[in-house]
Each structure stands twice: as C-alpha cells, then as structure tokens.
Amino acid sequence: MTDSLLELLAPHLETPRADDTTSQYLNHLSTLSIQDLQSTELQSLAQSSHSTLLSLQALSNRSHRSFITSADNLSSLRTSIPQLTREAQQLRDAIPKLDEAAVGFSTKYSKITDNPALERRKKATQLARNVDRLSDILELPSLLSTAVSAASANSGAGASSTTYSSALDLHAHIKRLQTLYPDSPLIQDVASQAEDAMKEMTSNLIAGLRAQNLRLAAGMRTVGWLRRVAPDLELLQGDGSSGTGEGALGAIFLICRLAHLVSTLEALDPLRELADQETQRRVDAKQKSESWSDGQQTDRYLKRYIEIFREQSFAIVSLYKNIFATEQSESTDSSQKAKDPLQNRPSALATFPMHLVQLLTDTMRAYLPNVRDRSSRESLLTQLLYCAASLGRLGGDFGMILTELSGEEEMEYEWEEVMRKHRALAGRLEQLTSRVAAH
Fold first, then answer.
1. pLDDT at position 91, please?
2. pLDDT for 37-95, tens place per residue?
3. Which of 112, 214, 257, 345 registers the highest number of CB atoms within 10 A of its CB?
4. Are 279 and 406 in a shared domain?
5. C-alpha dihedral sign at 145, 146, 152, 156
6. Where is the domain boundary, 208, 233, 258?
C-alpha cells in the first residue's frame, strides 16, 4: 500500500524517497478517510509546519553562533587536514635529529665537572624533583610546635598524652634525618627549631609537676615524657652509675612539689599576718613585764599549717617513692665501692625530709610561743606527733627533732606529757589491732 501511494504521488514530489519518515506518513494516510484527508489532515499539517518553524527559529536564535562556527570550521577542514598531515610528517622526521643532538650534548658535557651552568641546572632539576619532600621537611618544626602548644593547652590527660606522643614521634623523625644528613644546612636548621620546641615542651612538663593534686599516674607519665624529651637529665649526677637511676629528675620532681607546697602554705598569709601581729604584741608585753594570754589567731594558723604540711609532705614522699623506685642491683661490686665511696650517690630524697622538717620547725619555733592556752598547745603538739608518725611510715620520722621546739620549762613538761599520752594511745591501738587480727 505504501509503495503504491508513493508511485502515485511521485509525479507531484520533487525528490521522492522511500525513507522511514515517508513510509510512516503514507501508512498514516492510508488509515484516514476521504473526509479527514480533505479537512483535518490539512489543518494538522499546517499546525505541525508552524510548530516546526517556531522550533527552528528558537534554535537558530539560541545557537546561531555555534552554527556559524561549525560552518566556518567545516569550510576550512579541507585545508586543515592536509596541513596537519604535513606538520606531523615534519615532526616525525625531526625527532631522530633531536635525539642525536641530545645524545651528542650529553656525551660532550657529561665528563665536564667544573661547568657552573651545568651544576646550577643539576641542582635546579634535583630541587624540582624533591620539592614535595623538602616542603614536608620544612613543615616539621611548625607541626612540632603546634603539637607542643596543643598539649600544653589541653587539660585532659588523654588528649595531652596523644599530643605529647605525636610531638615525641616528630622529634624522633627529625633526629633520624639529622643522623642521615649530618652536613645538610637545611636539616641542621630544622633540628635547631625542633630543639627549641622540645625545650618548650620540657618547660611545660616541669611546670606540670607543680600542678595541684598531682596523681601517681600523671606523675609517672610526666616523668616518663621527661626521660624521653631530656635524657641528659638522668646523667647530670655524673656517669650515670647512681643506684637510683633517677639522675636529676628526682631533684627536679622534689623541687617542683616543694614549690607547690610553699605556694599552698602562702595561701595562709592572711592568718600568718594575724599571727605576726600577736607575736609583736607578745614581745611588747614581755618588754613591759606584762602577762600574755592570747594566741587564738596563731593557734588557727598553726593548725591549718600543720594540716597542709602533713598532707602535702606525705604525698610528696609517697609519689617520689612510687615513681623513682630503686633499681640498684644486689650484685654490686663491693670492692669497687671501697675504691670509690662516692660512686653510688644517694638519691635526692635522702636530704629532702630534713629540709621539710626544717621548714616546719622554723615556723613552729617562731609562732608556738604565742599560744598560751595549755589545751590548745597540747592539741598542736599532738598534731605534730601525728604528722611525724605519718611521714615516719615512709622513713622520715622526725618526732625526736620536735623536742627542740620547747624553749621554756613549762613547755618541756607539756611536751613530755603529750609524748607519754601519744605512746600510750599508740600502744592501745596496737593491742586492739592484734586482738582483731587474732579473732
């Protein structure tokens, strides 16, 4: 049917073609009636033609530049392709000559070592190849400083531990680079900046030892970091042969904790000023041969002073003993000790309790005479005995030194009575403990 209609209409068409569009439209015509062909089909064709015209106009308005460019390129395509072919042939013919020239240049100048231009070119080429590595190395000091600053700013133990560990890893990497390239000015500069950052980290760690309420875990962690950051501190006492294995770290720890103790006691300055006023009034009364019966402010000050001293001194010595455990071997050569009696020096803790006791006795000797009430004075002396017994559990009992505090005959009898009561109470407690243990 389609072929028949096409043959029928062929005399009226300019270019009769049997394509898919023509076939589809002729099939569509065969389904229409005579009335539809005369009426609705004409309108449908007119409407489709008008819609197609509008679409072509919109497309031309929107993409006319692309059409013009495509037309120009299409018109020049006939000349561009032969020109591209000729240039590609010329390039292919020139590559062997270029290769021969490069080989000749390399052969001619490879044996020349004193050519400044070639040396600069080699250095520039090597720098271009390693620019990423150099950039990473140059960023190491800033990363290390950032890690140290972040660790000092973070108060949480976990965050500080992570950042300090990262800083130590970065410093170890820089030390490895310094070992591999000892003559490199760049590595030396980076190592110098890293040492400045590690000094800051060491200062932060030492300041951390002065923190309030320092716990055992935090103290051990801080001392461990100090051993990694500043290993020379363990060798400051000589050749490292001391039996404690602490070097100068033990002394630094005790100094920091002593500074914290002193700062805590300085918080009692308002009470101490009141006690100083009572001391002045007592001295004036003694010069005028008048009786002195006051001392309440001094009693408050001394009670609080002894309480803080007892708590902090026990904590200091206890932390020290747990952190710096003695590592001396039992198989020490005794003959070598006899040759050099100063070989194994005592630890920093050997004289530290005496310094603490001196600090306490000086304060008591200065202010205890202000307290004239017998019961208050006995309470203070008992409190001192408890303090001595508390520190005595760690090997620092100073009970006998307290007998030197009594400067008057009346106070000597009070001290003897307090000692007698304290020993009687200790004996009863020991008996009670043994009975409980037996049952």
1. 92
2. 777 888 888 888 889 999 988 888 888 888 888 888 888 888 888 899 999 999 999 99
3. 257
4. yes
5. negative
6. 208
Q: In terms of Cα–Cα distance, which of 417, 420, 415 is closest to 402?
A: 415
The pTM is what? 0.61
Mean pLDDT of 271-277: 90
Considering its fold, how many domains does the chain have in total? 2
266 and 178, same structural domain? no
Contact indicator for 186, 137 with CB cutoff of 8 Å: yes
Residue 271 lies in a domain: yes
Alpha-carbon dihedral angle through residues 282, 288, 291, 295, given to the nearest 10 degrees: -10
Q: CA 323 to CA 226: how far, in whole Å?
A: 13
**Token code pair at residue 248:** 């100068």
With 90 as the cut, is the pLDDT of residue 18 above it?
A: no
| Whether 269 and 320 share a structural domain | yes
The pLDDT value given to residue 409: 45
Same domain, 309 and 403: yes
| C-alpha span between 332 and 137 (Å, rounded) | 47
Which of 395, 404, 423 has the alpha carbon at shortest distance from 365? Answer: 404
Whole-number pLDDT of residue 332: 43
Q: Please provide the DSSP assignment of 293-338 as one string.
A: ---HHHHHHHHHHHHHHHHHHHHHHHHHHHHS-----TT--HHHHH
CA dihedral of 327, 331, 333, 337, whole degrees rounded to 10? 40
Both 275 and 408 in one domain: the answer is yes
Return all residues near 300 (Cβ < 8 A) that are at least 6 apart.
Answer: 271, 274
- Residues 161-205: tens digit of each pLDDT: 778 888 888 988 999 999 998 888 989 999 999 999 888 888 888
- Residue 341: band (very low, low, confident or very high) from pLDDT cuts 50, 70, 90: low
Closest CA to 302 of 380, 355, 378: 380
User: At residue 282, what is the residue type?
Assistant: R
φ/ψ of residue 213, rounded to 5:
55, 50
Domain that holds residue 401: 249-328+344-438
One-letter identity of residue 225: W
Token output for 33: 């009636």
Same domain, 299 and 417: yes
Mean pLDDT of 251-273: 91
State whether 284 and 406 are in the same domain. yes
